[in-house]
């Protein structure tokens, strides 16, 4: 065996190919949609100036180069090209890219997860019927193994042969989901799709809050909506999201108000009222607590920082 072949690392080579494809299809810094509907790519040329609150929907996130920190409630997740991040429920998070430079940019991909596709895959693969488990956190890190990496590469290579996307992309996405379901924490995705699981009921509560975040919240009404007792809902909801339902709703409101002021130019008081706040002073206090500055100062800072990108996956 030659010295060069002895030193060859196929996993490192695959990660480098993944990075090369992402960089080739990112014209500049920011988040980029692709010809594959569920797939988006991101590039950042410098570390984030601060944590950017945003909403993560169910997805697989993989970093090909660089690293990032995600905060969910009081918990911190740090991941890089050695790990994958799976989000199984919609979560308000704050994150920041911590390793990136013009010579070695942060490069990542995000593959949205369709719960309906998960349900069909579980049925087709004979994975249904496992013993129900208590609700678990709706986000997890896992070592990026060769089976997932190889399937991701097959999907990513389609970006260079777009005529093949309609036929092959659904097959490769299905394989990726299958590999995740068969992985060490696959039960978290399994429970997302199973209608009799507590995670699925919490997911229904999350979906209700996302549709009705501007309305007054009574935990008894929400518990009745998802067929759980109020105490069980509160306990399981916090297990999945690291937040109480009220804290979750508050973050949804404040993030939506920020978006309205930033993208639609709404005044502070109007945005606060639009998302359900009756008191402008309470809105400003809670906004400052989440974003670290009052609305006008935060928006000015945000507009200057957004020249590089929206927050990538």
From TrEMBL:
Q: Which organism is it from?
A: Pseudomonas knackmussii (strain DSM 6978 / CCUG 54928 / LMG 23759 / B13)
Q: What Gene Ontology terms for biological process does this UniProt record contain? A: positive regulation of metabolic process
Keyword DNA-binding (UniProt): yes
The HTH araC/xylS-type domain covers which part of the protein? 203-301
List the gene name. Answer: yqhC
Q: Which GO terms describe its molecular function?
A: DNA-binding transcription factor activity; sequence-specific DNA binding
Task: Keyword check for Transcription regulation, yes or no.
Answer: yes
Q: What is this protein called?
A: Transcriptional regulator, AraC family
User: Could you read off the lineage of the organism from its UniProt record?
Assistant: Bacteria, Pseudomonadati, Pseudomonadota, Gammaproteobacteria, Pseudomonadales
SUPFAM superfamilies listed in its UniProt record:
Homeodomain-like
Print the keywords alphabetically.
Answer: DNA-binding, Transcription, Transcription regulation
